């Protein structure tokens, strides 16, 4: 049996102990970045990572496989604290919009208590945003992918880290040759 690589792995739900057990979208990102196998890669923005971890676990297998591209796109997305805060604010705003669209009686954001904290944990914002999605459909999936694109556009990508991801397929071909 050939070893598991980023090219052969199937994205699945949950946290995994090794690539042989499968990978979530963030674990795949850690592989692409050349980091230790983890669902919290250092090169990925924690706001985007928290959102993708929760989203990965909430969708079906068919939609989950479309996250492959995003595993590579988020590598190198970690930015300064101000960039992370701007992404967290946009993610919370998007979640509030989703909640408002599904509830006519929406009066307050469930993030109200978190907003009172000086620096809310970014993991809370990602999970909150995923829970705002009432039902996973192709339409909401497209909206989520668009939101990730929007979050990535806030700030800059570390091209040194991203270059390793681009070079990875070439290295794999060199090994196979």
Report on the architecture of this protein.
The structure is a single chain. Helix 2 runs parallel beside helix 7 (122-131). The chain has helices spanning 25-32, 46-58, 61-65, 68-73, 81-102, 112-115, 122-131, 138-153, 159-176. It has one domain. With 177 residues, it is mostly helical. The chain is globular, with a radius of gyration of 17 Å.
Summarize the structure.
The protein is mainly α. It has helices spanning about 25-30, 45-60, 60-65, 70-75, 80-100, 110-115, 120-130, 140-155, 160-175.
Helix share bin: 55-70%
Number of self-contained structural domains: 1
Question: What's the total count of β strands?
Answer: 0
The value of Rg in angstroms is: 17 Å
Helical segment tally?
9
Largest sheet: none
- Percentage beta strand: under 5%
Mean of residue pLDDT?
82
- Structural class determined from secondary elements: mainly alpha
Overall spatial form: globular
First-to-last CA distance: 19 Å
Show unreliable segments.
169-177
Elements, N to C (H/E): HHHHHHHHH
Strand and helix map with partners:
Layout: H1 25-32, H2 46-58, H3 61-65, H4 68-73, H5 81-102, H6 112-115, H7 122-131, H8 138-153, H9 159-176
Which terms would index this structure?
177 residues, mainly alpha, globular
